[in-house]
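Final report, closing paragraph on structural work. Over the funding period we assembled a curated collection of sequence-structure pairs, and we close with a single example.
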Amino acid sequence: MKYSVIIPVYNRISEVEDLLRSLSQQTCKDFEVIIVEDGSTEPCEDVVKEYEGKVDVKYFFKENEGRSIARNYGMERAAGDYFIFFDSDCVIPPVYFERLNEELVKNPVDCFGGPDSADESFSDIQKAINHSMTSFLTTGGIRGGAVQLEKFTPRTFNMGFSRAVYDTVGGFREMFSEDIDMSMRIKNAGFSIALIRPAVVFHKRRVDFKKFFRQVYVFGMSRITLKLLYPGSMKLVHCLPALAVLIGIALIVLSFTVSPWFITPILVYLLAIFVEAYITTEDPWIAVLALPASVIQISGYGLGFIKAYVTKIIFRRGRDVNEEIMMRKGK
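Its predicted structure, as stored:
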């Protein structure tokens, strides 16, 4: 068997059903699916049973320890030559494995990832959030298949690596941004990493702006943890949201205290986001929703980054990073 698809799950019954349905419709069937239920109070076992005759799926229930440990649990029980990781809120296009096979035959690599997009069935807010997470104007193009400002880093909503990588590097650490940490460890071990553009997944992401803010806030904080783990890994693109927050606050204050014209750069930037979103989605309402989504994406990440930088870098507070990882049962 070539691929083992490993999916950690915590109280995501409806999402698992959508994901399994999409996997059952693949044009290439050379894969198994391993569902690891991480101590859910609402298990998805009954949904998994409905697909046992449609896809090679195995179900495991374990106590709640975190998504990284759940992924490691799945890898320990996997039979494939490659381990593929999707988030439970992904929907996989029917030709995913067919295209992945074609690309790996042409260009074999040890570790790979693919872009994410929004399916037509997603809500307008999900589409707007997807745009804010993949737009060059908000993330610098480091997601969604673009690599303009940063070398490509696979993330676990659409990531894979060979069994040889696992045997050498080990499993995921239970920490925030564990996928970036894993990619760094794979790279440092000398393995090849590539973006496979045709291997697209549809990623639902967060269903409302409040949850989205919490998510990107954690992303911002975890970037400082990664800096402590891997000195020199932080790039300009990682600091831009924090810089944007500070500049934005300054411009707003100046617009009230000095001249209203100081708000102009913010308005021009928001107009650019709207125009780009409208051109990309061809939907004026999604372009409107892209405005709050983008503000939340930048401010949430930026505020989390600033808080972690001040507490961990300037004041050197908080648990030592390596100790924290050990406490989270990482390898």
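The CA atoms of residues 50 and 277 lie 39 Å apart. The beta strands are 3-9, 31-38, 57-62, 82-85, 90-91, 111-113, 116-117, 159-162, 193-195, 201-203. We thank the funder for supporting this effort.
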